[in-house]
């Protein structure tokens, strides 16, 4: 920096003055608010659900609700698997004990629709070897109430009961056990991620003091989001899976934002600024970028609000809250701490132990990183831009090809680890019982009908291809239902086609609706297909607008959207190759079901796209800042990558560590979410930002920054950028020997005179 620049007073805006005027008061207020958040968010997991894959306005949802109300026995969600040991289930002692179990179950409040093999004689409720049989019932109420009922009755019924052994299964048991395991796995993931993240931050910053600040911002964001989610559970359903995203994004984004701000603050200190001035400059530059980045991530996550399933909406609630809280903590609490710490931000330099013998100068505090290696790398990429652009694009497309064979399904008990009790029960039923109880379809018939009309309708059902058998009708005064058993897998393509055929079947004067596992899957796929264009449209349009406001270019926003989409190809390809096809299932300890849960790709797209934009904004903001200052396109790309390449890579590695910790979950969907997004983040930072972005920007040259006159005027009026607007007139002169572009691969390491008032 020139002396004239250093002596110029910084432009201190109202926000900077507000944040830095009373830093101790700001930190005290944050401590109080955080303590209140801990209290408000306590027990949030107990109030959350483990379902939410069903569209609430779907035909299957309507039919399920009516059947549960009018015909509880048609919708059992609790299955007691009775194992008779060495004798058959028809043994008198076994039958007597089963009768006692049914009698006790009937006396339990909140349970209805009880039926058993011994009461009905149905062969579908007796295993093929005759050693096991089922007592089926329905627990009423919402997921929370059902879980409480299950907790109450489990000690009474499960275990050895006279001559039999009883195990609990069914949908309510699967969901309850899944929720419990997710809570346990989340705690373990936090215990893994926090210390590893701290070690990585120390390696990045050197200073233990600087390393603790991003971690503190992340903890504040997580605790605050838990309080927000706890409040939302009073008004709407929220999925327990959202807690995983809260932890991952809370740590990951808070660390990203804090890294960016602390890095810029240390650069300013190293350049000679006093702490308060350094904070002001940091907020006007890196602070704007953090705010802009938070908006882009929040927009990507908010797109999930267009879907009706509360599983997806829950991730939007958690994601938006944690992103905004992470940004707020980074822009309010962190600057206050930096003002108080000042040069002590470099204290406790743990890397000093590795620098013994390098002289006292090396121990006085870290110099700003020059990023010469990243500058040289950017120059290499731009010299061979066509090669890097083509090879990288082809490679990413090839990695994504397995996704062309994706098959969508629904989550079931195989999400759970192999030893989970409810999964063991479901496996016994699936493999040992005829017709797989619970896997059929129910056709609800509403309207007054005669026995002849019902018989004619049953006859039409039996003639539909793919129907293995029809039970019923079971009737009340105004409604009836038929049980329809599909030929083949309960949720296979044939069963899904049978759902469509049943819905298309003429039913005379009856109103009919179909539910069952396959029907729920069909409706979920249809709901996602209907809303997906809207979600993608929201993400693309708002991303184009935000990136235009950041850069003032027409081409860069288009590049950002396309390159971000390319960065996700490896993730989607890996999801199919690993989790659908079962490759690496032994190493990763999961059971492949041969399909992917329908909502997971949507969730992963929104999260990974937002995180990719997060890194994209960091890089583009520094490129734009340098281009505004010099007007040299290639130098600006080199400068941007040299200044942010190491930072983005470090942030991506840290976020990937957090996501991998989430990916150690014993629940398959959570494992898929964590490992898939970790891969997407690393591919984006290490391949797209490092190779594809500089190569493409080299190929587009100065046209990269083109915009028609009206849009240029719009950007000048409303645009945002890292740093203050560039002054009119000639660009700043270069220092002797400083040339941009491939000729100077460092991109920095030299002092450049800047216009007065700029940094």
Topology (elements, then pairings):
Elements: H1 3-7, H2 14-21, H3 23-40, H4 59-70, E1 78-83, H5 92-106, E2 111-116, H6 117-120, E3 132-139, H7 143-157, E4 159-161, E5 164-169, H8 171-205, H9 208-232, H10 242-270, H11 275-302, H12 310-341, H13 372-383, H14 385-400, E6 408-409, H15 421-432, E7 441-446, H16 451-462, E8 467-475, E9 479-486, H17 493-504, E10 511-516, H18 517-551, H19 555-567, H20 569-580, H21 585-588, E11 596-597, H22 600-630, H23 633-662, H24 668-700, H25 709-718
Parallel strand pairs: 6-11
Antiparallel strand pairs: 1-3, 1-5, 2-3, 4-5, 7-9, 7-10, 8-9
Entry keywords:
four-stranded antiparallel beta sheet, alpha+beta, five-stranded antiparallel beta sheet, single chain, 8% strand
Give the overall shape. Answer: elongated
Unreliable segments of 5+ consecutive residues: 1-13, 357-370, 723-759
Average pLDDT, rounded to a whole number, is 82
Alpha-carbon Rg, integer: 30 Å
How can the largest sheet be summarized? 5 strands, antiparallel
- The number of distinct helices, counting runs of at least 4 residues, comes to 25
Strand order of the largest sheet: 2-3-1-5-4
Give the fraction of residues assigned to helices.
55-70%
User: How much β-strand is present in the residues?
Assistant: 5-15%
Distance between the termini: 9 Å
SS-based structural class?
alpha+beta
How many E-type strands?
Answer: 11
Describe the structure.
This protein is of the alpha+beta class. Helices cover 60% and strands 8% of the residues. The protein contains 25 helices and eleven strands. It has helices at 3-7, 14-21, 23-40, 59-70, 92-106, 117-120, 143-157, 171-205, 208-232, 242-270, 275-302, 310-341, 372-383, 385-400, 421-432, 451-462, 493-504, 517-551, 555-567, 569-580, 585-588, 600-630, 633-662, 668-700, 709-718, and strands spanning 78-83, 111-116, 132-139, 159-161, 164-169, 408-409, 441-446, 467-475, 479-486, 511-516, 596-597. The strands form three sheets. Strands 2-3-1-5-4 form a five-stranded antiparallel β-sheet, with helices on both faces. Helix 11 (275-302) runs antiparallel to helix 12 (310-341) and helix 19 (555-567) packs antiparallel against helix 24. The longest helix is centred in the first third of the chain and has 35 residues, at 171-205. It is elongated. The N and C termini lie close together (9 Å). The model is unreliable at 1-13, 357-370 and 723-759 (pLDDT under 50).
């Amino acid at each position: 920096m020139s002396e004239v620049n250093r002596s110029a007073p910084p432009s201190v805006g109202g926000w900077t003055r507000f944040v830095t005027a009373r830093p101790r008061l700001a930190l005290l207020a944050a401590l109080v608010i955080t303590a209140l958040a801990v209290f408000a968010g306590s027990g949030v997991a107990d109030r959350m659900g483990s379902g939410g894959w069903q569209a609430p306005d779907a035909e299957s949802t309507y039919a399920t609700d009516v059947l549960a109300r009018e015909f509880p026995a048609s919708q059992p969600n609790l299955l007691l698997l009775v194992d008779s040991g060495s004798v058959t289930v028809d043994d008198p002692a076994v039958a007597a004990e089963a009768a006692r179990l049914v009698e006790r179950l009937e006396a339990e409040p909140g349970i209805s629709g009880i039926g058993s093999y011994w009461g009905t004689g149905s062969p579908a409720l007796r295993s093929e070897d005759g050693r096991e049989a089922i007592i089926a019932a329905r627990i009423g109420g919402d997921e929370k109430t059902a879980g409480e009922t299950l907790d109450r009755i489990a000690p009474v019924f499960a275990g050895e009961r006279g001559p039999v052994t009883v195990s609990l299964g069914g949908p309510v048991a699967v969901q309850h056990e899944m929720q419990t395991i997710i809570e346990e796995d989340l705690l373990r993931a936090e215990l893994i991620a926090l210390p590893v993240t701290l070690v990585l931050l120390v390696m990045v910053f050197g200073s233990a003091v600087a390393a603790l600040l991003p971690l503190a911002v992340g903890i504040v964001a997580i605790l605050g989001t838990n309080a927000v989610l706890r409040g939302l559970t009073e008004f709407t359903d929220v999925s327990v899976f959202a807690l995983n995203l809260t932890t991952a994004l809370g740590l990951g984004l808070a660390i990203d934002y804090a890294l960016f701000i602390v890095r810029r603050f240390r650069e300013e200190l190293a350049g000679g600024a006093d702490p308060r001035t350094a904070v002001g400059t940091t907020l006007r530059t890196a602070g704007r970028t953090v705010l802009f980045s938070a908006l882009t991530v929040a927009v990507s996550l908010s797109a999930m609000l267009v879907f009706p399933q509360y599983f997806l909406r829950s991730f939007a609630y958690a994601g938006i809250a944690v992103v905004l809280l992470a940004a707020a903590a980074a822009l309010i609490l962190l600057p206050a701490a930096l003002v108080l710490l000042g040069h002590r931000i470099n204290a406790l330099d743990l890397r000093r132990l590795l620098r013994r013998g390098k002289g006292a100068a090396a121990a006085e505090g870290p110099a700003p990183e020059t990023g010469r290696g990243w500058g040289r790398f950017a120059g290499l990429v731009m010299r061979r831009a066509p090669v890097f652009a083509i090879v990288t694009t082809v490679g990413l497309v090839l990695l994504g090809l397995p996704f062309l064979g994706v098959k969508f399904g629904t989550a079931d008990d195989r999400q759970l680890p192999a030893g989970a009790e409810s999964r063991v029960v479901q496996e016994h039923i699936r493999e040992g019982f005829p017709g797989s109880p619970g896997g059929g379809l129910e056709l609800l018939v509403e309207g007054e009908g005669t026995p002849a009309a019902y018989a004619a309708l049953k006859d039409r059902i039996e003639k539909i291809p793919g129907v293995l058998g029809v039970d019923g009708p079971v009737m009340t005064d105004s409604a009836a239902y038929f049980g329809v058993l599909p030929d083949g897998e309960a949720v296979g393509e044939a069963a899904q086609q049978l759902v469509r055929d049943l819905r298309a079947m003429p039913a005379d004067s009856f109103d009919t609706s179909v539910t069952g596992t396959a029907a729920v899957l069909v409706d979920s796929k249809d709901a996602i297909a209907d809303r997906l264009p809207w979600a993608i449209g929201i993400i693309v349009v708002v991303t184009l607008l935000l990136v235009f406001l950041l850069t003032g270019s027409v081409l860069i926003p288009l590049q950002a959207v396309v390159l971000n989409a390319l960065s996700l190809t490896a993730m989607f390809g890996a999801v199919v190759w690993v989790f659908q096809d079962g490759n690496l299932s032994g190493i990763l300890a999961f059971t492949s079901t041969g399909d992917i849960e329908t909502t997971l790709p949507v969730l992963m797209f929104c999260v990974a796209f937002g995180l990719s934009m997060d890194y994209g904004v960091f890089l583009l903001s520094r490129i734009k800042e340098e281009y505004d200052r010099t007007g040299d396109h290639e130098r600006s790309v080199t400068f941007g990558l040299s200044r942010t390449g190491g930072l983005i890579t470090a942030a991506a590695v840290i976020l990937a560590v957090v996501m991998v910790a989430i990916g150690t979950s014993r629940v398959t969907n959570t494992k898929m979410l964590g490992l898939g997004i970790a891969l997407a983040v690393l591919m984006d930072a290490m391949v797209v930002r490092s190779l594809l972005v500089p190569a493409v920007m080299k190929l587009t040259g100065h046209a990269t920054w083109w915009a028609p006159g009206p849009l240029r005027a719009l950007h000048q009026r409303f645009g945002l950028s890292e740093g203050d607007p560039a002054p009119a007139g000639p660009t700043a002169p270069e220092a002797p020997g400083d040339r941009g572009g491939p000729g100077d691969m460092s991109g920095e390491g030299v002092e450049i005179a800047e216009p007065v008032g700029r940094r």
